[in-house]
Amino acid sequence: MTTVALKDVTKVFPDGTVAVDRVNLDVEDGEFLVLLGPSGCGKSTVLRMVAGLEDPSSGVVLLDGEVANEIPPRDRRIAMVFQDFALYPHMTVNENISFPLRLSGVEPAPRAERVADVAGALGIGELLGRRPGQLSGGQRQRVAMGRAIVRRPGLFLMDEPLSNLDSGLRAELRAEISGLVRELGVSCMYVTHDQAEALTMADRVAIMRKGVLQDVGTPTEVYGRPATLYVAAFLGSPRMNLIEASVYVHLDRYVALNLGEQALYLPWDDIRARVISHYHGERIVIGMRAEALTPVAPDAPGDVLQGRIRYLEHHGHESLAFVDVGATAVIVDELGAAAVEVEEEPVSPFQRLGQAVQRLTGRFGDRSEGEPAGGGGRTSVLSDPGRHHRRPAELAVRLAPYPAIRAGSALAIGVRMDALHFFDERGDRIDVGWR
Ligand SMILES: Nc1ncnc2c1ncn2[C@@H]1O[C@H](COP(=O)(O)OP(=O)(O)OP(=O)(O)O)[C@@H](O)[C@H]1O
């Protein structure tokens, strides 16, 4: 089956939009690769370049190891399935599925055999005589799949094929499509903005943001060890809790992660302590998924944060408590999250003096103001101490369904230190050599 390789592929549209920015990506033989990202991040453009519908501005697309930039779309052994699967309304299901075979001159007898095979595999054998208008949305999508499969392509390109369907049908077809594609052994690139679809269907997930590839890995890798803050925040529900911490190294003893009113401690023999110690006197981002946090008794020993429940959310199978522990939230934009209100705190003369001293002593690093660490045009994700804005974090903690606890109550939270994620102020993962 067809393999795909994108080498430094960039697409700049005539109006100057950089839709895809130096993407390197491989799809192996028979692999199901999902391209995931929010609307406008460049997923469809990548797919269209692989299909030959769009030319890269620079870089090369390789199909089966051969440069394909000059190969016309019809010669690429590729089948595409889109969101708005345009079936021919005046043709029956049978005629719709067999259409590509008729175009390529396959005789009627083998044509009928292949259509019957494909329709059987898709469970639409009974519907061959109907027209698209007489089918449900799910059935129409199966016919569209049938029309793609029947040509025996080496590669499927699917662009949000399920997004027009209701959620029950989506879940059903999700399993069917990934099962069928694997059975056929055909390589597949599948575009979606739905993380559940990506994590359940993919062999590997490639996450994009603003044309740039952020991370590629198995669902377990990208969820469990995300390469960037963006990937960490994008994957998972509830979203990963992201808070600021100031790093203080007590040599040979521990690294203190000050969260504001409280601190967490990494023992010096923790392998991550050495790497994080390079950020002594600076701020970093700590990521903690809800599964890293457990309610504990108020006087429980160990790594515990004391907080107060701001509000509760009941989801039937579980409840979520959103807990203020006096920490500052890190907000990752473009996630479609509701804007978080910025809380202006009164600044006392002492605080102003403190800020001035911090700047002079370089507590927040010795970079000039406004210059991001490491350059590269990326800005800091941390709050601006000069403006003294604080975005209070509300840590999502899982509780049993409908707990006997109310908003406003105190809650002690046990923290699984081994499940924490650390990012620098530009959003890159700190513990290198981690995957
Ligand atoms: N022909 C074009 N001319 C100019 N800009 C374009 C063109 N086609 C796409 N773009 C822009 O390129 C960027 C990437 O678009 P693309 O369709 O690849 O994103 P996407 O991730 O697939 O989004 P969606 O999920 O909404 O389809 C967007 O900013 C889009 O507006």
From TrEMBL:
Per the record, which residues fall in region Disordered? 364-388
Locate the ABC transporter domain: which residues? 4-235
**This protein's name:** Multiple sugar transport system ATP-binding protein
**Which CDD domains would you find in this protein's record?**
ABC_MalK_N
Q: Which InterPro entries match?
A: AAA+_ATPase (IPR003593), ABC_transporter-like_ATP-bd (IPR003439), ABC_transporter-like_CS (IPR017871), ABC_transpr_MalK-like (IPR015855), ABC_transpr_MalK/UgpC-like (IPR047641), Mo/tungstate-bd_C_term_dom (IPR008995), NA-bd_OB-fold (IPR012340), P-loop_NTPase (IPR027417)
> Biological process GO annotation list?
carbohydrate transport
**UniProt keyword Phosphoprotein, yes or no:** no
Keywords assigned: ATP-binding, Nucleotide-binding, Sugar transport, Transport
Q: SMART domains of this UniProt entry?
A: AAA
Q: Which Pfam families match?
A: ABC_tran
Gene Ontology MF terms: ABC-type transporter activity; ATP binding; ATP hydrolysis activity
Transcription regulation as UniProt keyword: no
Q: Which residues form a coiled coil?
A: none
Quote a single Gene Ontology cellular component term: ATP-binding cassette (ABC) transporter complex, substrate-binding subunit-containing
What residue intervals traverse the membrane? none
